[in-house]
Every structure is written in C-alpha cells, then in structure tokens.
Amino acid sequence: MDMDLITNILFAAVRTGTPLLLVAIGELICERAGVLNLGQEGMMLMGAVLGFIAALTTGSIVTGFVVAALAGVLMSLLFGFLALTLSTNQYATGLALAIFGGGLSAFIGQPFVGKPVDGLHAIVIPYLSDIPLIGKALFAQDGMVYLSFILVPALAWMLKNSRPGLIIRAAGESPDSLHALGHRVMMVRYLAVMFGGAMAGLAGGYLSLAYTPMWNEGMTAGRGWIALALVVFAGWQLGRLMLGAYLFGLASILHLVFQGLGFDISPSLLAMMPYVATILVLVVLSRSRDNPALQAPAAIGKPWRPVH
Amino acid sequence: MLRLERQPQDSRLMAWCSPLLAIALTLAAGALLFAVLGHKPLESLYEFFLGGVKDIYSVGELGVKVTPILLCAVGLVLCYRANVWNIGAEGQFIAGALCAGMAALAGLDIDTPWYAVVIMLAGMLGGMIWAGIAAWLKTHFACNEILTTIMLNYVAYNLLQYGVHGPLKDPQGFNFPESAMFNDNHLLPVILEGTRLHGGILIAAVAVIAVVLLLRYTHLGFKITVLGRDASAATFAGFGSKQLTWIVLLACGGLAGLAGAGEVDGPIGQLTPYISSGYGYAAIIVVFLGRQQPVGAVLASILLGLTYLGGETSQIKLGLPVSLTELFQGMLLFFLLACDLFIGYRLRWIPRVHPA
User: Fold this and answer.
1) Tell me, what's the ipTM?
2) Residue contact A88–B341, C-beta within 8 A
3) How far apart are CA B227 and CA B75, in angstroms?
4) Which of A99, A278, A283 sits opposite B326 (nearest CB)?
5) Structural domains of chain A ordered from first start
6) How far, in Å, CA of A68 to CA of A53, rounded?
7) Which of B152, B292, B326 to mutate to test the interface with A (most CBs of A within 10 A)?
8) Where does the chain cross the membrane (chain A) (predicted)?
9) Which of B130, B190, B281, B336 has the most crowded Cβ, counting Cβ within 10 A?
C-alpha cells in the first residue's frame, strides 16, 4: 500500500466518521443527564431535509446548518415533552420519534430529491495539511470537522471539571440528590435533550450539505442507531467516542481500501460492515464491563418526577 | 394549576380507551395536516383511511397488508411481554424471505404444490436463525437487544441486496436485480376468488389463536408474563430468564420469518430488493396499540394495514408521497404514549393558595 492511499483512507475515515461523531456527542451528553433518546435517526433526518431545503432556497450553507440544528431541537422538544414532562417510556418514545421523523422528512423532502446544492467546502490549512499521512485527515477538512475537533475536548473538560458538567452528571447519576440540592432536574434534562437534538440536526445537515450534498429519503442509513452503540462503545467518555467514530468511519469506507488493494468484493457485503462491526464491538465490550470508569449513568432511561 | 397525580391503581378503563383516544387525536392531526397542504381535510382523511377499501378486491388487498404485520406483531407480543425489546422483526422478516426464496429457487422443477410447505418452513427457519443470533448475543454476552436487532435489520437488508444483485439474480433477467419467478405451483394458494388474498392469513389466524392459548392457559405463558412484569420475581421463582429470552425470540423470529416467506411465496412471487414496506416496524406500533394482547393486535393490524393502503391511495388520488403512511404511524404511536400516561396518572386542578 502506498502512502497516498493511506493518506486518503485516513482522510475519508475522519470525514465519514464526523456525522457519527456529531450525533453521538449529543446523545452522550443526553445520556450523561440520564435521558436515553433512541430517536436520533428521526432527528438527523429532519435536520438533513430541512437544512438542505434552507440551503437550497437561501443559497447559504450556514443558514442550512442553522436550520438543521433548529430542526433537531424542535424534534427533541417533542421527545422531551413526552418522555420528560409526561414521563412516557423512553424506549418507545424514541422509537416513535425515529419512525415519525423518517416519515415526515420523506414527506417534506419529496419535491427536493435529486436537486443539487453547492456543498460545504474544505478549509485547507497551509503547511499543516502537508504533514505526511495525517496532515490531510486533520487539516484539509471542512468547518464542521474542525467544530467537532473543538467540541470533543471542550465538552470533555466541561463534564469533568466545571459546575454545569457536575450538574449534568448528577442529573444522570442521582436526580434525587440534585433535586434535594435545589437544582431543577427537569430543566437540566430538557437542555441536555435539546443539545442532543441540535447535534443530531447538525449531523443530518452534514450528510445532506457536506458529505453527499443532496437530499435522499432515509439517507442517514442507520447512523443514528450506530451512534447509540458508539456511546456504549465509548463507555460514556468523549475521547473514546471520537476514536470510535473514526474506527466506524473506517469500517464504512472499507470498499475504498479493498479497491485500493485490488480486491473485488460485492458492495452490498461491504455495506454490511459498519453494522457487523457494531455488533462485534458490543460483544467485545461485554468482556470488559468491570472498568468502573466506563459504566452507564446510574439513572439512565428512568423517568424522574419531582416529589413534593 | 393543573397537576399530574399518581393514581392509587392503574385504570383498566383507560388502558382500553387510550388507543381509541390516540386514534381520534391522530385523525385530528391528520385533518390539520391535510388542511395545511391545501386539501379538504375530511374528504382527504376519508380517502386515506377508507378510500382504498371499496370492493372485494381491495378488501383482499387489505388482508394482504394485514397478514405480514399481524404475524410479526403476534411474535412481538411475546417478546414485549417478556420485556425483550426486539426491534428486529423487520430483519427476521427479510431473513425469512431470503431463506424461503433460496428454497423456492432450489426446487423450481419439483412438481407438487406441497413444496410450498418446504418453502414456508425454510422461511420460518431463516427468521429463527436471525432472531437466534440476537438471543445468543443477549444471553451470552449481555448485549442490548435493541441495538443488536436494529443492526441485524440492516445486515439482513444488505444480505438481500447481495443476493438479488449476485448469486440469486435471474440469469435470464436482463441484469435486473431480481431472482427468477418462483414456480407458480409452489405459491401459497389464493383463498378468495378475484383477489390476491393468500393462505398466509390463515397461518396468521392460527398464530393468533396459539398465542392466545399460550398466554391464557399454559405455564410457559405465565412465566413469560412474570418475567416481563418483575424480572427479580421471575428469577426468585426459578424461571430461567435466559431460556425464556430464547423462547420468545425464536418464536417471534419464526413468525416474522413466516411473514417474509408468505410475502415472497405469495403476492410477490420472487425475490426483489424491496420485499418489506417496513412491516416489522409497523408491527411494533401494533403491539403497543393492541395492549400487548394477541386479539388487540388483530384490530391494530387492520388499522395499520389501512395506513399502508391509504399511503398508496393518496399517492394516486391526491398526489401525496407514500411516506404519509409512516407519518401517520409515527403520530399514532406518539399520541398513544401520551394517552397511556392517564392509565397511571390523573390530572387534577389544584387552586393556587395565596398566603394571607
């Protein structure tokens, strides 16, 4: 394998992993606050379609991303109202969100299928991008990739060292204690859910505005579900989440690798790889469940209501 | 102010009224949607839900839609009762269809209609294998079944694509990604003259009765319900939760596999890239709507079947996208979950007390 091929594979792995990383960041924060939102796929699709329409009609990619994030937030509020205010079953509500978002996005987006939009351009950083092997992967990407580079360490620091981070973790570990201390658990969880929605919307927008700049029904192809597995894989830690997202990115572009090596394998079989990899990861993880630093938040998925 | 209060006991009345209320709210939201889109709300609603059912042929079409949904839903009733969150009926359906298709293609020249039995059994086996993977992952590696079954759905879908684009493609098919047509003799017989309604609906009916009997009269059914209601009580009573997980998943996989087999060995008659219209996902809604009861699932399957017919009808008559089907299904589940709140809670008006 020559250097150019490896450089390009690393570049593509980061690029392909980015939508996964964006949506998984949101879900990780949401789960750390104790809320399990299975509806990532629905929020991503709504972000993808509305962001695309906004960019197409206004001609501005930035507007497209803002609208994508807002679409995700609106969808997450729907989830929040049911799962938080009305304490419905979080599994079922997330599932409903995924189905509803799939239907609504296909419905809204039908007239826009196949229309082209000028996608997000890469910002090539001079000199740094010339570093062999990793330069292109790290310094010749678009703005959303750089945003994720900033968000991961910033949020990791916030969760670990700051007061808001402590409050978020408390909402996920022991909402009763947080309530007893006079904090508003509902408010914290709502904000976390909305952040998750915004990130899912951005991830969807990344797909329809940057990764493959066009809209297609169901174009997220299960990435919202893979993101849920990624959060488990990461043991609810942001650093590991980033690594996981790029590994999955790599699994999704295996066809490039195989083509480069001169193998001829059916694209359908290779398209299976990310899903098979997810299952394998879950199996491997079950062997390392004893690490106390990588456990699920104690109150995850449990509805919480204030007692008076 | 209005406040939600826990009721001392769950309301049984509300448990059965909630689906009706949810349907009413879905209709209202649908009417609103049609109005926003500039269609006459009531006429469009009527067209969506009942416009497709006007003669014996279209009743048959409804039955064709209800059959796979109901088969998947009856299996899911068992899983959800046992608190096993199988989202994989879709993948088990596809795996069943794929195995049934391979059996059908392998025996194209066999000259007896009874070969249909072999095809259906192959489909059942395919679904059971697919569900068995999830059961093995859950019982051996404690993998969350929600994630594994969803991933397996995508794997099954891609396997089907591989099959129809590759080894199962019809050599005389002008390179279309489809298998050869199955032997006409091997297809499930049509049971209502002048329609496409096939024997699969009888299999579904048998499945419903079997699950009703299982849940009502057998110890196994009792164990499944106890496991779902209180896992620690089930363990305490010595009901092997791993064994029960295997049983409910295999049963569901078998039924979903039969559903898939019935589709390809019935109305479709060959393997194509698109054999399911999301029936496995619709079945999840059916289980919630049908109160985890097999008989409730029958009624709910008919409603969901209507949403599929409605999507097709409104595409033809109103020029609206087929995705209207999923939209209605999603709204239905949302409203249902919200209404179900009032099974355990009630709203009370509490006047604000102003301190003197």
Assistant:
1) 0.87
2) yes
3) 16
4) A99
5) 3-294 (1.10.3470)
6) 9
7) B326
8) 6-30, 42-59, 65-84, 91-113, 133-159, 190-212, 218-236, 243-262, 268-285
9) B130
Q: Please, which residues 16-45 of chain A have a Cβ atom closer than 8 Å to chain B? A: 38, 42
DSSP 8-state code for residue B173: S
Q: How far is the C-alpha of A58 from the C-alpha of A55, rounded, in Å? A: 5
Taking the Cβ of residue B331 and every Cβ of chain A, the question of whether any pair is shorter than 8 Å is answered with: yes
State how far the alpha carbon of A240 is from the alpha carbons of A2, A67, B192, in Å.
29, 29, 58
Q: Which residue among A102, A222, A228 sits closest to B154, beta carbon to beta carbon? A: A222
Q: List beta partners, residue B5.
A: B346
Q: Which residue has the tokens 């969803």?
A: B150
Give the per-residue pLDDT at A289: 63
Q: What is the DSSP letter of B266?
A: I
* 3-state SS, residue A219: coil
**B166 vs A contacts (CB less than 8 Å):** 266, 268
The pTM of this model reads: 0.89
Phi-psi region of B270 (alpha: psi -120 to 50; beta: other; left: phi over 0): beta
Question: Which of A99, A106, A228 is the closest to B281 by Cβ?
Answer: A99
Helices (H), B107-199: 115-141, 145-165
- For the segment A248-259, the average pLDDT, to the nearest whole number, is 81
Residues 80-119 of A with CB under 8 A from B: 82, 86-89, 91-93, 95-97, 99-104, 106-107, 110
Question: Residue B178 — φ and ψ, nearest 5°?
Answer: -140, 150
Q: Degrees (nearest 5) of the Cα angle A234, B141, A284? A: 40
> If residue B2 lies in a helix (H) or strand (E), which one and from where to where?
strand B2-6
Q: Which of B158, B326, B331 sits opposite A106 (nearest CB)?
A: B326
Q: Which residues of B touch A42 (CB under 8 A)?
A: 330
φ, ψ of residue A4 to 5 degrees: the values are: -60, -40
Taking CA–CA distances from A108, the nearest residue in chain B reads: B321
**First vs last Cα of chain A: how many Å apart?**
66
Say which of A42, A110, A226 has its CB closest to residue B321. Answer: A110
A295 against A279, higher pLDDT: A279
Q: Which residue in B has a C-alpha nearest to residue A284's C-alpha?
A: B141
Pairwise CA distance, residues A58 & A114, whole Å = 18
Q: Check CB contact of A295 with chain B, cutoff 8 Å.
A: no
Amino acid type, B221: G
Task: Round to whole Å and give the CA distance between B134 and A54.
Answer: 41
B315, closest residue in chain A (CA to CA): A107
Question: What is residue A245's three-state secondary structure?
Answer: helix
Is B291 touching A (CB cutoff 8 A)? no
**Which residue's entry shows tokens 């005389």?**
B172
Interface test with A, best of B151, B162, B336 (most A CBs within 10 A): B151
What are the residue ranges of helices labelled H in A59-184?
A: 61-80, 90-109, 135-139, 143-161, 163-173, 175-180
Write the pLDDT tens digit of every residue in B117-160.
Answer: 999 999 999 999 999 999 999 999 988 898 899 899 999 999 99
Cα distance between residue A151 and residue A254, in whole Å: 27
Chain B partners within 8 Å of A281 (Cβ): none
Read off the pLDDT band of B324 (50, 70, 90).
Answer: confident
Strands B2-6 and B345-349: antiparallel
* Percent composition of chain A: helix, strand, coil (DSSP 3-state, to 5): 75, 0, 25
Phi, psi of B346 (to 5 degrees): -135, 155
H or E stretch covering B340: helix B324-344
